[in-house]
Amino acid sequence: MGSFFVQRPVFAIVLAILIVISGAVAITGLPIAQFPDIVPPEVSVTTTYTGADALTLEQSVATPLEQKANGVDNMIYMKSTSANDGSLELRVTFKPGTNPDMNNVLLQNRVSEATPSLPNDVKQLGVPVKKAMGMPFMVISLYSPKGTLDAPYLGNYATINVIDDLARIPGVGRVTKMGSADYAMRIWVRPDRLATLNLTVDDITNAIRAQSTVNPAGMIGGEPAPKGQELTYSVRAQGRLETQEEFSDIIVRANPDGSVIRMSDVARVELGVEAYTQIARFNGQAASALLVYQAPGSNSLLLAEQVKSTMEGLAKKFPADVAYAVALDTTLPVTAGINEIMHTLLEAVALVLLVVFLFLQSWRATLIPLLTVPVSLIGAFIAFPMLGFSVNTLSLFGLVLAIGLVVDDAIVVVEAVEHHIEHGLSPRDATIQAMKEVSGPVVAIALVLSAVFIPVAFLGGITGSMYKQVALTIALSMMFSAI
C-alpha cells in the first residue's frame, strides 16, 4: 500500500486535500458551545389553578399528574412545585442522550390521561407540556433611559413588536418575558360591600362573563333576499368591553325595585397588569427582561450575532425614550475559551515541530510532520456530525492532546527514509523500501492508541458523555494520521 501512494503522488495529494476540505466544510455546520450537551433533557408541565393554595393544588392537580407521569419511558426522576399563587410546575427528567421531542410526546400522552381528573378551572386554562430549557443564553432588557415609561408599557411593547421577531430566528428555542406582565383590567373587590349587599365573587365573575361577550348581530340584505337586492351588510354590535368605564358600568345585580348594583359599587376597576409577582430592573430603572433560550444543536456564536443584529434593526423603530441593552450574554466565555484553546493549539504545534527539528536536524524532514498535523486534525471533524459532537472546549482539548500523537507516524516514516538514504538509496527507492518496513508499525500504532481511547467512549452517564468527546477526537486524529 505504501508503494501505491509513492508511485501516485498526485492521488495522495488529492486525497489529503479532500480530507482537509471535508473537515473544513464539516466545521462550518457544527454547533459551537462552551461544553458538550451533557445535561439530561427535561420536559415541563405547567398549569394554574386560580385561587387555590399550595395544599389544594398539590391534592387536586399535582397528584393526578404525578400518578400518570410516573414511569414514563426513559424517565429518571421528576419534581413538582406547587405555589400559593395557584401555579404548578412538574419537571420530568429523562435519560441523557434520549430524543427531547419524543420525550415531550410521551409525557404529553400521560398528561392527556390525567386531564379528565383535573378541576374544570385548570382545564379551561390548559396544561401545556413543553421541552424545558435550562439557563437562557442571552437576556435583553428594554428600558426607558429618561424614566418616562413604566414597566407595563415596555413589557407590552416587547410582546407586540419584539418577541415574535426574536422567536423567528433559526436556533432560538423560546423567548420569555420577565419583570412585566401584559395589560389587564384589574377588578379589586371590596369584601365589606359584597357582604353588605349579599353578593359573592362568583356573582361578579358571572356578570363579567355575561356582559363582556361577542354578540352576533346578523346581516342586512343576506340571502334569501328580495329581488333586486344588490348589497349585503354585516351588522356589528358592541362586543367585549374594553375601557375602564365600560367595566365599571357592568350590572352585577338588578333588584326587584328597578335599582341596579354596578361593578363600581362593589369594586375598584383599573387598567393594570395580569400579575404583580415579578419586577425587572436595569441599572435601577424599570425594565422588561426578555429571556432568549437556545435550541439544542444550534451554533451559539452565530445565534448571538443574529439576535444582536435583529435587535439593532428593531431599535430603529423604537418609540421615544425606549432603548435596549444586552444584560447577559453567555457566548462571551465561549468565545474567550475557544480563543484560548486555539492559541494553545498553535503553541502546541510550534513546540512539536521544534522538538521534531531538534531531533531530525533537517527542515526538509520537519516539513513532512508539519503537513501531517493539519490534515489529521481537520480531518477529525468529518466524523463530528455523525457522532453528534460540537466544537467545544473538550473536543478542542482532545485536538491539543492529539498533536503530539499524530506526528508519530510521520516521524517513523521520515526516520526510516533518512536511514536508507544514508545507505546510498535514492529518495524514491528509500521511501518505497521504508514503507515496506514501517507500514505494519504505522498501522499498529494507530490501532494500539485507538484501543486505548475508544473504550472510554462506551462509558455511560454524564461522565461518559464528557470523556467521549476527548477520546474519540484523539482516536479519529490518529486514524487520519495513519491514512
Give an overview of the whole structure.
This protein is α+β, with helices and mostly antiparallel strands and 483 residues long. The chain has 18 helices and 15 strands. The chain has helices at 2-7, 9-28, 54-69, 100-114, 120-125, 151-161, 163-167, 191-197, 201-211, 244-248, 263-266, 300-315, 331-360, 363-379, 384-387, 393-422, 427-453, 461-482; strands at 42-48, 75-82, 87-94, 129-132, 138-143, 172-178, 183-189, 216-220, 233-236, 251-254, 260-262, 267-273, 281-282, 285-294, 323-329. Strands 5, 6, 13, 14 and 15 form a five-stranded antiparallel beta sheet that branches. Helix 13 (331-360) packs antiparallel against helix 14, helix 13 (331-360) packs parallel to helix 16 (393-422) and helix 14 packs antiparallel against helix 16. It is elongated and about 125 Å long.
| Number of helical stretches of at least 4 residues | 18
From the N-terminal CA to the C-terminal CA, the straight-line distance is 10 Å
Kindly state the number of beta strands. 15
- Beta-strand level of the residues, as a percent range? 15-25%
Biggest sheet, open or closed, and with what strands and sense? 5 strands, antiparallel
Overall SS class:
alpha+beta
Overall 3D shape = elongated
| Helical residues, percent | 40-55%
Which stretches of 5+ consecutive residues score pLDDT under 50? none
What is the typical, i.e. mean, pLDDT? 84
Radius of gyration: 34 Å
Task: Give the arrangement of secondary structure elements.
Elements: H1 2-7, H2 9-28, E1 42-48, H3 54-69, E2 75-82, E3 87-94, H4 100-114, H5 120-125, E4 129-132, E5 138-143, H6 151-161, H7 163-167, E6 172-178, E7 183-189, H8 191-197, H9 201-211, E8 216-220, E9 233-236, H10 244-248, E10 251-254, E11 260-262, H11 263-266, E12 267-273, E13 281-282, E14 285-294, H12 300-315, E15 323-329, H13 331-360, H14 363-379, H15 384-387, H16 393-422, H17 427-453, H18 461-482
Antiparallel strand pairs: 1-3, 1-4, 2-3, 5-14, 5-15, 6-14, 7-12, 8-9, 10-11, 13-14
